[in-house]
Amino acid sequence: MTIDCCSNIAFIPDDIWEAITIKVATDSIRSLCSLRMSCKAAHDAGEADIVHRSVSIPPPHATPWWWCLNPEANRFFDRCMAAGNPELLFREALRELFIRRNENVGIRMLNSASSRGHAAAKYAMSMMLMLRTDNNVEKQKGLELYRELDAAGLLADSNARCFSILTVSWPGEVQMPRLEEQHTVCASPTCSTRGHMPLLYDYRRRAAERNSVHAFGRASHIPCIQCRADYDLQAFVNLP
């Protein structure tokens, strides 16, 4: 449906149109395109960088295959990336980290995406920082990010988001970091579960292969937050 250029709605101020367009863009690309076709004011508002930064990007399994072959779609995604769309920054960060092996660039992209509220980017950032063995300050920063995600109940969903991107987008191309003993987060000599997370992860993995109920729960029953972080590190490096 188009809007009559002579109607009162055509005289809505530009900043209001921009706010409306941002709201619609957070729903879906399809909704944004429909709005932009409704009238010139909506079309012009859709050109703003903040709209491209805010638009909701569908998950890989829900993305039409022909988008990657469409020049107009590619230009749209390039514009979103240039505007700092957090979902696209997150995906490109994973590519830099685990395919191109460019850690510095990947970390910067994760930091940018997580600063804009992207939970999965924050999760990947926490994992990468906790894998550091040369900088204890960075390792502790990673643990703090992990605590925040744990408190918000976002760990499982964030892990699943990383799994979706790494397995659907680039099957067979991903090279995850190796997890060594020196990467262990829990350093408490009195912790009864310290050092046992690889065994728990292997138990959960084998249970999942048998479709057993024991595959569920991850390490949620473990009282030590640092040991739970060690479990998630095991899950993270074994994602693909």
UniProtKB/TrEMBL annotation:
Residues 62-166 form the At2g35280-like TPR domain. Pfam families: TPR_27. It comes from Arachis hypogaea. This is At2g35280-like TPR domain-containing protein. It comes from the Eukaryota. The lineage of its organism: Eukaryota, Viridiplantae, Streptophyta, Embryophyta, Tracheophyta.
